[in-house]
Amino acid sequence: MNKYTTILFDVDGTLLDFDSAEENGLASVFKEYEESGAYRTADLIGTYRRVNRDLWDAYEKGLITKDHITDTRFGAVFEAHGITADGIQTEHNYREILNHTAIVMPEAVEVLEYLQDRYDLYVVTNGFTETQKMRMADSGLDRYFKKSFISEEVGYQKPQKEYFDCCFEAMLGAERERTLIVGDSLNSDIKGGNTAGIDTCWFNPQGAVLTAGVKVDREIRSLKELKEFL
């Protein structure tokens, strides 16, 4: 008999291809600067990703708020490249594009179809509420889940213990020893699972190296591998 009754799924990089959606959105908002002939979109995107990664790392450590991320990331990019532009307006334009770009990861639908009648499925994500709800709805994946726990609504974020405590308070009947989290991020998903005292499944399609100090119970290269043990 399978030990699990509850499966928690991360969204970006696990169920939805966030990298491709992000690339599309950034290319759109940076297009005018490349057309001026003074900047390369690839350079602007590279700077954005470095800035954004550092901000999200700080957010997941509880050092800054989500508003700080959205209020500063494009401004920091423009400052780094000597561009005079409105970072807040660019953020708004970018989010409008991102909100309506939902690219489903290969095998996600097949696997969720298989799991939905066998387990209680929940979404656990650090994304923005409006963005995640719209993208999950547009993708059609929201129908597979009993509830979505979005950090902006919860008041805490992965990998904080408080985030998972709030999730388990709302998941009536869920037992930690019978719960599995599936996600691509060692820092937020797997470390979060360790903190919460639940089993972890690392979705690692690129074959990245495991970080020391993080416990992984299962590692998969494709989502379809979940069907082999669930």
TrEMBL record:
GO terms for molecular function: 5'-nucleotidase activity. Pfam families: Hydrolase. It comes from the Bacteria. This is Noncanonical pyrimidine nucleotidase, YjjG family. It comes from Hungatella hathewayi.
